[in-house]
Specification:
alpha/beta, nine-stranded parallel sheet, 11 strands, 10% strand
């Protein structure tokens, strides 16, 4: 069988034909739509990378952006390179020729070179009106120096950092009375907890004896975080004056032994009270820290776990600026410390009822929060001013060699300044 096909048998148009639409559609797609799409993609990519829109680029190219133009104020005095505070490079090496004498007059006196002046960090003295004729000139009182510590000392610390072995050992360390007292302890599931026995309270029985004549301002220093580093803890025990109080971390191992050694050198002892820090969870005070999520009963139970870690302490040194101090569990915790005869140092006491407030004093500052000599000295100066104003002040410090060095130098100035270093138990006040 023979098959034959012809053009008439095809489905659709018999031959190629170009309609009017095809004549303009192809150029539109290839010459307008495709380039415009590529330009949009390129513009979007440029904006993502640089942040400049095509209009911003066009504005920069044409330099037609609106600008605020203000004339430079006239400089008082003669306009000369020598009178400028900002000198061009090599200006100091230029030879200074004698100025020309004005016509019919004396030769002009050359302007003196301005000295290289460093801007003071203290507040400038108050300007005074010149005295009238025949009136004695009164000197203006200098402004008090700015005692805010610098973040970094200018030019760095001029001296190398000290070490603990470089600090002198003390010969005035005498042991306190034997501790603990059995009548001031009560066994519990968390270990022996401090209690009051008649008129005897842990804050007084375990305190370092202190007597001083007169009403000199008292300064208390608490070294916190001890027991975690052997070298720093031994340095605090053996190289600081016995009136410096030592606070041990509940996370320390061999805590009973550290407390015994501290009291054997004459230091009264506190126990660190870890609280949820203000920047939690970026910083975490550990599993023993009391949290804002703890209810009042849970917070008190948590507090008793911490108190059961060791014995023979006069009170607690609480972490500062904790949000726990503004929650409902704060007052029950303070009340539990009060009923146990313990003292409290820290902050967050404002607004707490007197019935719930133990013997306490608010910590003024952390003297070595910026661990440089200049910054520590400035903070200690602030603390001294607070003590002279209020009659008493307490600071926290960490166990660092530079901190101990600055403290020892500072303590030597106390007799001339009329203040005394006192253990914390002699600085706190009843409420």
């Amino acid at each position: 069988m023979k098959l034959s096909l012809s053009a008439a048998d095809r489905i659709g148009p018999n031959g190629p034909s170009i309609s009017g639409t095809s004549l303009w559609l192809s150029p539109l797609v290839y010459w307008i739509v495709v380039p415009l799409t590529l330009a949009c993609v390129a513009g979007a990519g440029w904006y993502i990378v640089t942040g400049d829109s095509p209009l911003d680029v066009l504005d920069d190219l044409t330099q037609n952006s609106s600008r605020i133009v203000m004339p430079m104020p006239a400089r008082p005095g003669a306009e000369s390179p020598e009178g400028s505070l900002l000198q061009p490079p090599g200006a100091a090496k230029e030879s200074t020729a004698a100025p020309e004498a004005p016509a019919g007059g004396k030769p002009a006196v050359p302007d003196e070179k301005l000295p290289n002046i460093s801007l003071p960090t203290t507040t400038p003295p108050t300007e005074t009106t010149p005295p009238a004729a025949g009136q004695a000139r009164t000197e203006s009182l200098p402004q008090p120096p700015v005692i805010s510590p610098p973040a970094i000392p200018p030019g760095g610390d001029p001296l190398p950092p000290p070490t603990f072995p470089q600090l002198p050992a003390r010969a005035d360390l005498k042991a306190l009375t034997a501790a603990p007292a059995n009548d001031l302890l009560r066994n519990s599931g968390n270990g022996p907890l401090p209690v009051v026995s008649g008129s005897r309270e842990p804050r007084t029985v375990y305190a370092r004896p202190f007597t001083v004549e007169g009403n000199a301002p008292r300064v208390g220093v608490v070294v916190t975080g001890l027991g975690l580093s052997r070298e720093s803890t031994e340095a605090a025990i053996s190289k600081l004056p016995p009136n410096v109080s030592l606070s041990f971390s509940p996370y320390a191992s061999n805590l009973d032994n550290w407390v015994k050694r501290a009291r054997g050198s004459g230091h009264e002892v506190l126990l660190d009270l870890p609280l949820e820090p203000p920047n939690f969870p970026v910083h975490d005070a550990g599993p023993l820290a009391i949290s804002t999520k703890d209810g009042p009963a849970d917070a008190v139970a948590h507090l008793q776990i911490i108190l059961g870690k060791t014995t023979s302490y006069v009170g607690v040194a609480a972490a500062l600026r904790s949000p726990v101090s503004s929650r409902e569990q704060w007052a029950p915790m303070l009340h539990d410390l009060k009923t146990r005869g313990l003292l409290f140092v820290g902050d967050g006491l404002s607004g707490v009822a007197a019935a719930d407030t133990p013997v306490s004093l608010t910590v003024s500052q952390v003297a070595d929060e910026t661990p440089f000599r200049a910054a520590i000295d400035a903070e200690l100066g602030r603390l001294l001013t607070t003590a002279q104003r209020d009659g008493a002040a307490i600071t926290y410090v960490s166990a660092r060699p530079v901190t101990f060095e600055r403290l020892l130098v500072w303590f030597d100035t106390f007799p001339k300044k009329g203040v005394v270093l006192a253990p914390v138990s002699a600085v706190v006040r009843p409420h």
